[in-house]
Amino acid sequence: MLHIYRFLALVVGLAAVAVSGPSFAQRAQGYVQEVGGNVTGQVGTGQPANVEKGQTLVNNATVTTGPQSFAVLKFEDGTAVLLKENTSFQVQHYTYNPKAPENANAIFNLVRGGLRMITGLVTSRNRDALKVATPLATIGIRGTEFMAVLVNPLYLQVINGAITATNAAGTVAFSAGQTGVVTSSTTLGSLIPVSQVPPGVFQMPNVPLTPVPATIPSGTPVGGTIAGGGAAATAIAIGVAAGVAIFNSSQNQSSTTHH
């Protein structure tokens, strides 16, 4: 009988882990390449924790930089993102497989602040594979290097390649050397001379970015959570607790039988 209870404990534990589904299986495809100053990270609505160099990025991870701080994020396809101070940036969804680049997809979210980005191979087979959402417009990437700073309005500057800005008013394209502005979510973006951009808007830390495919280190994810989010961790905890409870119960019953 004791062996049966042990078997049931194992089954319950495994079943609890299984209910976490695909989220538990997701693997990190990005990491924090450089960090300076006060930088925090969290997964979903989890508790923010200090971010260190080498920590990994999973879907739904948010990295936030404080005053006079910065972070460089690197992804498996080579895409590199520099976050300036007072910036909040979310990896909403990222998937890349070098054996099937046509299926690559990346959706980032610039909640506030500013960034400089150089795209890697994620757009090599699908030019619409990478987007950066903001409250005022969604930036479409065409394989490029650009800066986006959200200070209400949203300022855009293309260094190489081309981008688009899409919102309720439509879509406008910007090419290398051009500067644009989006004043609201219902106003079409427009070209402006760089002289109309307030001083310091495009001022970024002097940190080099290289769009070279990256090997993701085996570091802990930002926010200090299990990769895949809280559901997986909760499922594991439930499974372990249930298994322990059943096992203890079996031991008690066995002890009572001997008496």
What would you note in describing this structure?
With 259 residues, this protein is α+β, with helices and mostly antiparallel strands. The protein has helices spanning 2-18, 22-25, 230-258, and strands at residues 30-36, 39-43, 49-50, 56-57, 61-65, 70-75, 80-83, 88-95, 105-118, 130-133, 138-141, 145-150, 154-160, 162-167, 170-175, 179-182, 190-191. It contains 3 helices and 17 strands. It has 2 domains: 1-26 and 228-259; 27-227, Sandwich (Jelly Rolls), CATH 2.60.120.1440. The radius of gyration is 23 Å and the shape is globular. Helices cover 19% and strands 36% of the residues. It has a 17-stranded mixed beta sheet that branches. The model is unreliable at 1-25 and 226-259 (pLDDT under 50).
Q: What are the secondary-structure elements, in order, as H or E?
A: HHEEEEEEEEEEEEEEEEEH
Largest sheet: 17 strands, mixed
First-last Cα distance? 16 Å
**Extended strand count:** 17
Computed Rg: 23 Å
Structural class: alpha+beta
**Looking at CATH, which topology of the largest domain would you report?**
Jelly Rolls
Q: What's the helical proportion of residues?
A: 10-25%
Tally of individual domains: 2
Q: Tell me, briefly, the overall form.
A: globular
Task: Provide the β-strand percentage band.
Answer: 35-45%
Number of helices: 3
CATH class of the largest domain: Mainly Beta
Mean pLDDT, rounded to whole units?
83
**Regions with pLDDT < 50 over 5+ consecutive residues?**
1-25, 226-259
CATH architecture of the largest domain: Sandwich
Overview features:
single chain; 259 residues; alpha+beta; Jelly Rolls; 3 helices; 36% strand; disordered C terminus
